[in-house]
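Data availability (excerpt). The following record was deposited with the supplementary files.
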Amino acid sequence: MSLLFDSDERRIDFVLHPTDLSQAAERAFHHALALAIRHGAQFTLLHAMGRRATDNWADFPSVRSKLAEWRSAGTTQEFEARIRQASVNKIEVDIRDPVAASMQYIERNSVNMVVLATVGRSGLARLIRPSRAEQLARESRLLTLFVPEGGRTFVNGATGAVTLRRILLPVDSFTDPRPAMLQAVRVAELMDDPAIEITLLHVGEGEETKLTDVPQLPFCKWHVVERSGDVVGQILSMADEIEADAIYMSTAWSKAGFGRVEGGVTERVLAGAPCPVVAVPIDRDATTSG
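Predicted structure:
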């Protein structure tokens, strides 16, 4: 399997963060802002006007004040040039449906990454109230970072420090893992000292994942783990075992394998993930290649 890291695939240069002004959304805001300034990307904070009387757009953390706080902590010195390159917008739209508001914005702008807060739900609660975050990721088919309400984060909200060293990347025989591998390796661009560990996890029977299948890069250490049993359970267990900072998954939202529309692996991982999850969209017909 070959992986071309000099691919002409677009890098992250436009980050959208839809927010509902909740505490969970504030955690996602920290991740969206940290990623945007480190990529020198355009950043839009978008709020769809809701029905709640408690919505207070003015009280939500401002980008300027948060950057000032991070500068005081000394964690942005290496990225000042990128911060100056970044463009920031804070928009409130008169649309009640956050998915519709976000899709309208995406259709009119060149967004290539979405950062969303998510609250894990499973079983009956999931059937009664499906995730709007997953709906937006499915409809937009953009690179999406889901930041859970609880659990580990890789951005310190008080300092802006990014700790994204240990990445879990599940692989299966149905879904091409290379898009997720490419995005995971690019994480090194965000670090002062680029050194990451990526654990490839294969659950089930079949062809083994070989260490020779991955590119040998000086800043990246690869681990390959074979497990049997329930796929989602093993992914979540491994994420806890290695204390993963993030889970990266190639996702075809409407096919068998990772990310089926109903009850797929991506959705079930999101329901119980102990850390942020990055869903990397792939074509529905994409399959692993030798």
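Summary of structural features: The two ends are 5 Å apart (CA to CA).
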